[in-house]
Write a structure and sequence with these properties.
The protein is of the alpha/beta class. The chain contains 13 helices and 19 strands. Helix 11 crosses helix 12.
Length: 502
């Protein structure tokens, strides 16, 4: 049974309420519903030197020690070119590490990073028919059709999901590359991949209209399109596990390895895609780390936003709060139950435009920073910042993505023991449109860090069971506050040690 708050705690909460009440802050230009054009667009995509200049001038160094936690990595800083000692220090001071391409060409850069104590994190991205297409004879891996059958010509370029010889060739290539790294005395700390290849997007009709392909696929996997899609997604993860994660861990047994949207999903707690399609149930594999995606992506908005929703700042932010929290939270809940030994390193971004021709509102920076705090408190080990620059007028947004991630990381590093060893306390996902309190927290023995804020126009309090026998009532301010709590098991009381509001 919970014990009522002490009088001192009630007075403290009242004081905090008087300090924080003030309603929703006035909107600035950065809080508009739609992305503003960059006021100073670059003539071209920034070079690496220009990127470093932007980081030096616009992102301050961390005030907290990162310790042995993963640094942040940025999509804009992928490459193989070596960094100078000064450049490495510039990034390290801000909690950032370069992403090196998974290539022999990156070895000199990796040596310099390793000499400075910076983790060596490799990246590679693939899509389409790779690695099936590594087998030179296409008739050995692609769908085959009777000559008289009129089909989409592109289907002839698609692989039969269950022909694995190309995967075996990819595994040998990876082994050869990583053995060279090991021979050169360079340790690989992580391989965080973006393989969005077949059969993750396998076409159901391309498969069922090929007699030879049907003969190589389980009959029950071909019952209907949704069954086939689930089968292929499970197969894809297992192929990546066997032919990518396995060979990598043969060479570097202690490395962290993951791939885009590798998550733990279950029937009870499904990880959802952009259009609410559930990822099929999948247990742990040879990957050591999961990779849920927390994107403010227009694809999801176009699919899920309803005309009945008020098109204003608060309700757009509520939509994206739901979207960014849901994959990380579901994956974390399944990890706690099935595989607590796995880490999670999500991709994060406030704005991802798959459909730039469409006018889609974006999340406010204030709410985005708030949700980033909650992701840290829901059990992630690191973050990958998805901030590509595909056009010159996207530079300002790409810099802002990194600014926000670094600022929140610095703030949360003040609670590093909890990030390192704490257990998530709250993994529920807010509805797509819902006023009310959102809270997250990490508990470590008799202490906890809890963050909460109020969606909607009101400010109120929330009573949480921070420990099985210890409840505490906390004020939920509109703009958010972080509470450090301590449990006294002798009296079953909870003390508010400190609070940080912003």
């Amino acid at each position: 049974m919970g014990i009522p708050d002490t009088a001192g705690q009630k007075i403290f909460c009242l004081f905090l309420g008087l300090f924080l009440i003030g309603g929703t802050p006035s909107l600035s230009a950065s809080d508009l519903l739609y992305r503003e054009k960059d006021p100073h667009p670059a003539s071209n995509k920034p070079t690496r030197q220009e990127w470093l200049k932007l980081i030096r001038e616009q992102i301050p160094p961390l005030s907290q020690e990162r310790g042995k936690r993963w640094p942040l990595v940025s999509f804009a800083l992928i490459g193989s070119e070596a960094y100078s000692d000064e450049e490495i220090q510039l990034l390290s001071a801000r909690g950032i590490a370069p992403l090196l391409t998974l290539s022999i060409d990156s070895l000199p850069a990796a040596r310099r990073l390793q000499a400075k104590g910076v983790p060596v994190i490799l990246f590679d991205g693939r899509n389409g028919a790779w690695p099936y297409s590594l087998e030179a004879d296409k008739t050995e891996w692609a769908h085959q059709y009777p000559a008289q059958l009129q089909i989409n010509p592109q289907w002839r370029e698609l692989p039969v999901p269950t022909l694995f010889r190309g995967w075996a060739l990819a595994a040998e290539q990876l082994r050869t590359t990583l053995k060279k790294w090991r021979k050169e005395g360079v340790n690989v700390d992580a391989i965080w991949l973006d393989y969005e290849n077949e059969p993750s997007q396998a076409d159901y009709y391309a498969a069922i209209l090929s007699p030879s392909s049907r003969a190589l696929l389980p009959e029950k996997a071909l019952l209907d399109e949704s069954t086939f899609r689930a089968y292929c997604r499970q197969l894809w993860i297992q192929l990546l596990s066997s032919y990518v994660a396995g060979p990598a861990r043969e060479i570097f047994p202690a490395l962290s390895i993951t791939n885009w949207v590798v998550t733990l999903s279950s029937k009870e707690i499904p990880v959802l895609g952009w259009q609410n399609e559930p990822h099929p149930p999948l247990g742990s594999s040879l990957f050591t780390t999961t990779n849920p995606v927390a994107y403010g992506i227009d694809t999801a908005f176009l699919a899920l936003w309803q005309k009945s929703y008020p098109l204003d700042r608060e309700h757009v932010d509520q939509f994206y709060s739901h979207l960014l929290l849901r994959q990380v939270s579901a994956d974390s809940a399944n990890r706690q139950k099935q595989a607590p030994y796995l880490d999670a390193v999500p991709w994060v971004a406030r704005w991802v435009a798959d459909h730039p021709e469409q006018k889609v509102p974006i999340m406010s920076r204030e709410r985005y920073r708030e949700i980033l705090r909650h992701l840290w408190l829901r059990g992630v080990a690191g973050m990958q910042i998805f901030n590509p620059v595909n056009k010159a007028d996207q530079v300002g947004m790409a810099v802002a993505e990194l600014q926000d991630a670094v600022a929140v990381y610095d703030e949360m590093l003040a609670y590093r023991p909890f990030l390192d060893k704490g257990t998530p306390m709250q993994l529920s996902i807010p509805e797509i449109q819902a006023d009310g309190v959102i809270w997250s927290g990490l508990r470590l023995n008799n202490e906890a860090i809890v963050r909460l804020f109020w969606q909607g126009p009101h400010i109120g309090s929330l009573t949480i069971e921070a420990w099985p026998e210890g409840r505490v009532t906390l004020l939920a301010p509109t703009r958010g506050a972080t509470f450090h709590l301590r449990f006294n098991p002798e009296g079953n009381t909870v003390q508010i040690v400190s609070v940080k509001a912003q």
